[in-house]
Structures are given as C-alpha cells and as structure tokens.
Amino acid sequence: MKKIIFLSSCIKLTGRGKVQVEYANYLIQQGYSTEFAIVDDYGDENVLEKNIPRPIQYLNSYEYRLEQQRIRNERNKNIIKKIKFNLSLHQNYKHVVAQFNEIYSRIKPDIIIDFDTSLRGNINEYDCKSIAWIHMHIGNWLKSESALKRYAKALNRYDKIVCVSDEVKKELDTVDKKLAAKTISIYNPFNFNNIQQLANEEFDENEQQFANEKFLLMVSRLDLTCKDYATLFKAFDIAKENGYDGQLYVVGDGDHRNEILEMRSQMKHKENIQLLGAKTNPYKWMKRCDKFILSSTFEGFGNVLVEALAVNDTVISSDCKAGPDEILESGKIGYLFKVGDFQKLADLMIGAQPISRPMIDASIKRFSSEVIMQQFKNLINE
C-alpha cells in the first residue's frame, strides 16, 4: 500500500477543514500508510484534530505561530517592522520546509498531498508524486497579473492539481495554458447520511427559544474579506419593511465580529438580527430555517450551499465566483442574485419558494462522498 504525507495549513473548524477530515479518514479506512502534517498549531482552535484518529505533527508550534502573527500585525507601523515582516515570511517558509523534510526523510512517501500548496516553492525537489489542491477562484486574492503568473509558475512544479470546481479549473488553465494537462476538477466530498443525522438532533434548552422562531439563516465566518454582510443586512431591512415576519440568524464566528456588530447597529430592524456564534452542529439550524442564504463577494466553493441543500428546499446565494452557480445549476435547484443586489435578495427573502426535493436530491448526488472518493482513489492510484 502506498505511503502518503497529507499536509495542510491548519485544522480549525472551517469548510476546508471538514473536507480534509473526510479525505484523511478515507485514506485511513482504505489502509494507506498516511502521515498527517499541519503547518500551524492553533491550540484550542484545532477543533477538528479529534476527528482524525492518527497522531498529527505540527510544523509550527503554537508559540512560534503567535510570534509570527505578532510580527504580521505590526508590519504597517513603520518601515523597519515592514522589513522585519518580509524577512519573517522567508524565515517561516524555511522553517516549515525544514520541519517537513524531517517527516519526508523518515516516511519516504510515494505521494505528497499538499492541501494548501504550502510547499509550492520547492515541491519538485521531492522524489515522489505531488498533488496540490486549489480551493478558490485565485483572482480574488492575487490581484495583479504578475502575481497570478508567479503562482501559476509555482503550481507547475506539482504533478497533479485538483480544483474544487470546473470554474476554478477554467480560470487556472486560462492563467497558464501549460497547467491544463495537470489540472482536474474534483468536487469537495459530503457525507449526506451524517449531515441528515445531525440535522435531526434536538436543540438544547438555550437554543430552543431561537429555533422556535421563523428565521432566515446564514452560516458563515464573521469575515468581511469575502462575506457580504452589508448586502445581507440591507436586504433584510427591506424585507422586514415589506412584511417579512421572521428573524435573521448568523451562525459562525471570526475576526470581524465587532465590525459586523457595528454594521448591524445601523440597521432599522437590528433587534431582529442575531449573531448566534459558532455551532458544532449547524445542520439542525439549516434544516429548521425558513430559507438558507449565502451572501458573499467570492467563495472557494461554497460548501455550506451543498450542506444546506441536503436538508432544506429553499437555498439562496449570491452569484459570485466560484461555486454557487455550479452548485445550484444556474438556478435550477436554488436561487441566485447578483453580488450586492440587496433589492433582489430582499425579494427572495420574501418570495422564494421551496424547490422539488427529488430534483435537489438527484442533483447533489454528484457531491456525495461515494462519488468523490472514487475519483480521489483513482487519482491516488494512477
């Protein structure tokens, strides 16, 4: 059986984190000799660590990561701190590579799975097959053409590149035509039986008062980089003014919580908008909600849309890059609105109707773990 090193940047409670847990457990169940390496130790935030029944080696200790974060946070104070930050990026990469090399020398793997392209600077130096994952529309975080081309050049060092949607693959192939021979699309895997089982769990006593209300729901990081809370809140105010008789709940947490609370405070119907924090089981909220909404300026894939479709018949999303249009089949199994169009979103909050359950179920089979893991197995064994 092949020996594999599975490398990822972190193991926090994120959509990407849950996907890597699915892949990790599949490798274990299939009997592959797999070593799990995580770049950054986030201490108590390593929520998903318990879901991988194998030891995990962190390349950056918790203390080391905190020091790197401190340097990053101070980088704009003066030119000296900016230089120090730039030097630290190079030093941190060298540190990660050195730690990884110890694992590589010990394991002598047949395959390196680099789930976040953490080793893209020198992945071709390893004498084994290398597979990278691209999780989002790269044009959203690499703004200049030169940065895109540098990134594409680095990706050419991998043997195979997995894109989480056809749209992401198309963009990558356009940036560098040489990548087309290496890129493939594999959707993120979803264990629908597990999602539906969790969706049927009871609400606890503290949650019940919120769950008993009629409510719209967004499950998301509290992050203004890619999540469009301004459009969400404006649309909700309009919907309330036009007779919507429910609440708006946001399940999730993140670094921009205070900014989003301030944004909420400016809304006329702020008392009807509740930030409920992170939930270990968001699926029962997805099932109970009146309508599920994703309001983003861009997405990696939009995992929450697939999860919501598994348990709810009325799913609404901004038509952002990349993923929602592909997931919702251009509006066949859900509703799309143009990014920033709060009036259209308000109309959907009021008027969107449930879509045929059999139609949704037939469509989302393409995301099932059974389908995706067979594609993953083929990739590993080719």
Automatic annotation (TrEMBL):
One MF annotation (Gene Ontology) recorded for this entry: glycosyltransferase activity
EC number of this enzyme: 2.4.1.-
Domain Glycosyl transferase family: 201-349
Pfam families, per the entry: Glycos_transf_1
Keywords, comma-separated and alphabetical: Glycosyltransferase, Transferase
Protein name per UniProt: Glycosyltransferase Gtf1
Higher taxonomy: unclassified sequences, metagenomes, ecological metagenomes
